[in-house]
Amino acid sequence: MKLLSVVGARPQFVKLAPLCQRFREYPGVDHVVLHTGQHYDYRMSKIFFDQLGIPEPDWNLEIGSGTHGWQTAEMVKNIEPVLLKEKPDWVLVYGDTNSTLGGAMAAVKLHIPVAHIEAGLRSFNRTMPEEINRVLTDHCSTVLFCPTKAGMDNLSREGMKGRLILENARWVKTGEERSVQWCAMVGDLMYEVLNMSLDIAGRESTILPSLGLDPDSYYVVTVHRAENTDNPENFINILKGLAQVSKWKPVIFPIHPRTKKLMEQINRELISADNIKCIDPVSYFDMLVLVKNARAVLTDSGGLQKEAYILGTPCITLRSETEWVETVEMGWNVLVGTDPQAISNAVLKKDRLEIRPQLYGDGKTSRYILEILWGFPALTGDITLKGL
Ligand code: UD1
């Protein structure tokens, strides 16, 4: 079985890592990796391959930055000839970036089935480029791997009713027998990679001493969503909130390249406020250590909301909606938008809770994905990894 993964942006490299490792264990699986080049700085791309032991991509299209339409179109145009040459049985796409949609569109136009990893998530905000990418990718995929029940419910509401259910250690098809799309709740690859990495991150990362930080004595912040970085007013409001927060404890702010560009254009005084420490984007291991030991995380990232929850750190989300609704329902995450007062109030109020049920699967997501792809379409309940 030949699988081709399309990745291009930082969170996709993280999700790719456990799958690469899993696929390598099975000689019957040939896994080709295509990097679109959406993210290209060392600290946004290569450092993740090096740290997580992901082999060099077989293809790097070096597409780089551009407007959404241009970037997505370049991806479709340049992925197509690779697919024609490689002839994979499945194309795997991850998450919600322009690389996700570009990969999915190139594949379905060639009638190559698409497996969407991290399917079914919705913010219900169609002004987010990621929401459009998610909806379109889900609707053209054959197999939809959902991390959560909320994702499964969203797909069901949108008419994707075929289900792959794990029953007595066997995958069975239920729901619409004539469905052309199949949804499976397999947990989250980010949980799996986090479990694989936490010990080694604790041993190898020197981020806390190098920044002079003690556990529970700082906040960690990331901001890069278009709604916050394309709109200077939103971003300035966030900075005002952070300036207040930094009066209580240092604020560590690894700056995404998109955000750095905006910072260069706005009032420097806001940025140098008090105790806000702006640093370059950090590696995956450093981020795990920073989040695990922070008093709280303030972010507009999707992945960090989950990682904060898994690591038991309260999260304050700088958006007015989230795809990771269960972190809010459990009381570990709060949505505050960009109002400075709401941000600082939430920081004062948010504390660790006693109860934190496991929301993101059992850490075997990569195995379930492989089983389903291997056994599809003759999935009857007798799928086994033996003999792959
Ligand atoms: C993208 C994804 C978002 C994901 C995020 C992770 C889309 C629509 N958005 O947002 O879902 O959460 O990645 O980081 O695909 N840049 C660099 N160096 C790099 C990468 C980007 O300088 O290595 C600059 C580019 O000049 C670009 C800007 O950052 O203009 C934004 O990059 P882009 O790839 O468009 O989207 P992200 O904001 O990173």
TrEMBL record:
Family matches, as SUPFAM superfamilies: UDP-Glycosyltransferase/glycogen phosphorylase
Catalytic activity, EC: 5.1.3.23
Gene3D superfamilies xref list: Glycogen Phosphorylase B (3.40.50.2000)
The keyword Isomerase is annotated on this UniProt entry: yes
GO MF, one annotated term: isomerase activity
InterPro entries linked to this entry: UDP_GlcNAc_Epimerase_2_dom, WecB-like
Keywords, in A-Z order: Isomerase
Residue ranges of every copy of the UDP-N-acetylglucosamine 2-epimerase domain listed in the record: 23-373
Protein family (similarity comment): Belongs to the UDP-N-acetylglucosamine 2-epimerase family.
Cited NCBIfam families: wecB
Name under which the protein is recorded: UDP-2,3-diacetamido-2,3-dideoxy-D-glucuronate 2-epimerase
Taxonomic placement: Bacteria, Pseudomonadati, Atribacterota, Atribacteria, Atribacterales
